Amino acid sequence: MCNVLMTVRIRDIIAGIDRESPFDLAENWDNVGLLVGSPEHEVRKILLGLDPTTTLVDEAIARGADTIITHHPVIFKPLPRIDTSTPEGSLLQKALTHQIAIIACHTNLDSSKNGVSDILASELGLTEIAPLIPTTPGNEAGTGIGRVGCYAEPIAIREFVDRALNVLGLPVLQVAGPLPEMVGKVAVCGGSGSDLAETAYASGADIYLTAEVKHNIARWAEERDFCIIDGSHYGTEQPAIRLLAEKLSTIAAQSSWKIEILQTVDEKSPFVWLHQNSLTQE
Question: What average pLDDT does the chain have?
Answer without folding.
Answer: 94
